[in-house]
Amino acid sequence: MSTAPAPALRRPITEPDPSSTKRANTRRRGLRTLGWALLFLLPSAIPLTAFTLVPMISSAWVSLHDWNLISPMEWVGLENYRDLLADPRTRDVFANTATYILGYLPLVYIGGLGLALALNRTMAGIAFLRGAYFLPVVTSWVVVALVWQWLLSPSNGLVNTVLGAIGLPEPGWWTDPAWAMPSIILASVWKDLGFVMVILLAGLQALPQEVLEAARVDGAGAWRRFWHITLPLLSPSTFFVVVISLINGFQVFDQVNVMTGGGPAGASQVVVGQIYDLTFRYGRAGDASALSWLLFALVLVITAIQIRGQRRWVTYA
Amino acid sequence: MPELTATRPANGTGRRRGLVQNLFWGVALTLGAAVMLFPFLWTVITSITPDGTLASGPTLVVEDPTLDAYRQLFDAMPMWRIVANSFWIAIASTLFQLITGAMAAYAFTRIAFPGRQAVFAVYLATLMVPLQVLVVPLFIQMTRAQLSDTYFALLAPSIASAFGIFLLKQAMEGVPRELDEAATLDGAHHLRIFAQVVLPLTRPALATVAVFAFMGSWNSYLWPLVVIRSPELMTLPLGLATLQGQFTTQWNVVMAGSVVSVLPIAIVYIFAQRYIIAGFAHSGLK
Q1: Would the CB atoms of B104 and A41 count as touching at under 8 Å?
Q2: Contact A156/B55, CB-based, under 8 Å?
């Protein structure tokens, strides 16, 4: 935390000033520092204020009104929140979002961990293999969702063709209410495996090899070494994956919008999909804003709980 | 199959075991990679089939490959315009995020202004706000300013990113202060130190931020969906989603659109792979 260093260095050399000029100097120096700070901060402060802080505050304001985006806003206080909490649709979209997270998170973590363990070796072509698993991560959700919607096409998609060929039932994936959410989870896991893999791979490569080697010398088998050394030492990376995946999970939207549009019959409608529909289909901006604040509050609370709870299971080596 | 090298060049049996293990994992991982890449391959294949209805079921061999779907695609939508939009918006938001991010990071690490901690806390807070919370008011704001359905509206939310600022701040903390103190003694002011001392030494972090910014903009869907109406202002994800509505039975056209939209980002990815993976790894280690 060094201040502007040049004046600090010059100070002992100069003659002791009369205190009034000294104060004036300090003030001038302070002003100059402030000037520099403004020069460097304004380019980011202006857009962040205009496009993040102001909308955030105005969203809170809108959530206290009835508003269809066109006619004047009408103050209703907390009524939007009360209505939302009483509306069974709200429970449905939160439940669907929770289903998504509960299906997605274990699969993507276990899959990503398996991949990271398998890819954590020196071998020719390993960079290519890691790259192949990572490619879906950089691809846009729209493309991935389109391709998956089509792979899972109930009548003639590849997955059902293969299932049919080996005599298994062919579910109506995204057209059957029971299968819509599993389809979205499947596509999401496929897309995000590479992301989890890279983070856990970085964690694996930072593991202290001496500890693993010592356990091996002491006769600990591969399974024991994994459970008692690797997994606990990976807990910081695991923590990061869980926090990020949960935050992203609550905000799931793109793949739902492209694959099922929330259907059939709302079976895969998620919170953000509902926010979007409330605003742009039903013109209920007040309710949509209230719902987005409910979502934000929930994510904040859950993230805070995780950060507090990390002491119990996350070990920083 | 890739050529195999032993993980642990210990004694003879150890090496053989390593070889067998690597052979096993090489085969397993290559099969897995094929599963990961298959949808992309199939996208390309479908885009060159004459009949995209999938009536005959999936196939890997195309009887009469044709670029007809691409012709239809470019006829149906102003595709060049859409690709160019995606490209320029991605370039612009990358440049803006690098400039605003590097300058802010410099201020937070090098200028001791009053209230620095508090300002940084506000910056960090904006990182936690999901775009979804902002979408409605931002849309309203843009509409009121009569800026909705313009390039500016597309670009506005990605001019500065708290994530980039955070990452660059971490990198600048690592630049030794002795260097800029020396420059200060030589009479250099902040702009010079920023441009000639600190920036060159944070190049890897700048590259990571650039890659994230480009990818983020290229793939962004929700905000363009909300703010853009005119076909000639669309970006690729939006164009693709629209295309899906227009060509519900002609998957070859939709897949041609997918190929057009994946190709540029795949090329960026191949060149930037090192930085992307290092960037993710870095954020994961904290």
Answers
A1: yes
A2: yes
Contact list in B for residue A209 (CB cut-off 8 A) is: none
Of A4, A129, A141, the CB nearest to B33: A129
Convert chain B into a string of H (helix), E (strand) and C (coil).
Answer: CCCCCCCCCCCHHHHHHHHHHHHHHHHHHHHHHHHHHHHHHHHHHHHCCCCCCCCCCCCCCCCCCCCHHHHHHHHHCCHHHHHHHHHHHHHHHHHHHHHHHHHHHHHHHHCCCCCHHHHHHHHHHHHHCCHHHHHHHHHHHHHHCCCCCCHHHHHHHHCCCHHHHHHHHHHHHCCCHHHHHHHHHCCCCHHHHHHHHHHHHCHHHHHHHHHHHHHHHHHCCHHHHHHCCCHHHCCHHHHHHHHHHHCCCCHHHHHHHHHHHHHHHHHHHHHHHHHHHHHHHHHHHC
Cβ contact B137–A199 (<8 Å): no
pTM: 0.83
Best mutation target, A51, A68, A137, to test chain B (most B CBs within 10 A): A51
Question: Which residues of chain B lie closer than 8 angstroms to A289, CB-CB?
Answer: 136-137
- pLDDT (tens place) for every residue of chain A, 317 residues total: 344 444 444 444 445 555 667 777 788 888 889 999 999 999 999 999 999 999 988 899 999 999 988 888 899 999 999 999 999 999 999 999 999 999 999 999 999 999 999 998 888 888 888 888 988 988 888 888 888 888 888 877 888 888 888 888 888 888 888 899 999 999 999 999 998 998 898 888 888 888 888 988 998 888 998 999 899 989 888 988 898 888 889 989 988 988 898 889 889 999 999 999 998 899 999 999 999 999 988 988 888 888 888 888 887 75
